[in-house]
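Duplicate of #3305? Posting structure anyway:
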């Protein structure tokens, strides 16, 4: 899962980043309103942690921009300005949650997990597809009750395909979701193939499989 932290206070940003990376999320950041606009315009995220008070703009305007671009990211407003008016405006503009500063990092983890469940997995704590069961919070994958060991990228590929199980996922979208903005430095998508190959091998006993659509991308099929 890919998360964008929009926060201008360096220590707070570092604490949030380390906390979420410990949960094996892919984390990117923006310290200004302008940088945040560039990020949301160029990339897609599962969840955005949004500070309202930015040095060059109001974070609530980013919510308006997300709506204008018809983006579907989950948004948690993280702000020291704990006014009722800001809460109401943020929620009315499409934010999923509001977390006032200061807060415990354990609460941040719980809020992010809740938003990801609602946005990607219809609020379910466990995902069941055929004989495959996934616990998004522990990142465990079971096939017919046998624990399957996936590395972080294999797990992220699988859950991204599950979250988009009714759609064809392009190679570009998959690469950006799993590798983040570092994908801009890649000359090709060859690095995806080895991860897909390994994932397919581990999913051989499963009633789901990853189908390649030549020249375009991948789609998850359930037997």
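Output from current build:
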């Amino acid at each position: 899962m890919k998360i964008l932290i929009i926060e201008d206070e360096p220590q707070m940003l570092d604490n949030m980043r380390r906390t979420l990376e410990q949960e094996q999320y892919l984390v990117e950041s923006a310290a200004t309103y302008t940088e945040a606009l560039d990020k949301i315009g160029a990339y897609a995220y599962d969840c955005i942690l949004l500070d309202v008070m930015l040095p060059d703009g109001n974070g609530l305007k980013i919510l308006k921009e997300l709506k204008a671009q018809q983006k579907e990211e989950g948004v948690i407003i993280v702000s020291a300005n704990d006014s009722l008016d800001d809460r109401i405006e943020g929620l009315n503009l499409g934010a999923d949650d509001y977390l006032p500063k200061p807060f415990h990092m354990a609460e941040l983890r719980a809020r992010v997990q809740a938003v990801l469940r609602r946005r990607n997995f219809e609020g379910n704590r466990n995902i069941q597809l055929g004989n495959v069961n996934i616990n998004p919070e522990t990142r465990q994958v079971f096939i017919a009750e046998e624990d399957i060991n996936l590395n972080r990228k294999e797990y992220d590929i699988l859950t991204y395909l599950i979250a988009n199980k009714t759609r064809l996922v392009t190679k570009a979208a998959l690469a950006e979701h799993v590798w983040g903005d570092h994908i801009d430095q890649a000359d090709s998508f060859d690095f995806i193939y080895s991860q897909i190959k390994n994932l397919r091998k581990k999913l051989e006993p499963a009633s789901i499989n990853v189908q390649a659509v030549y020249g375009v991308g991948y789609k998850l099929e359930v037997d």
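Confirmed duplicate; merging threads. The first helix runs from residue 10 to 22. The mean pLDDT is 88.
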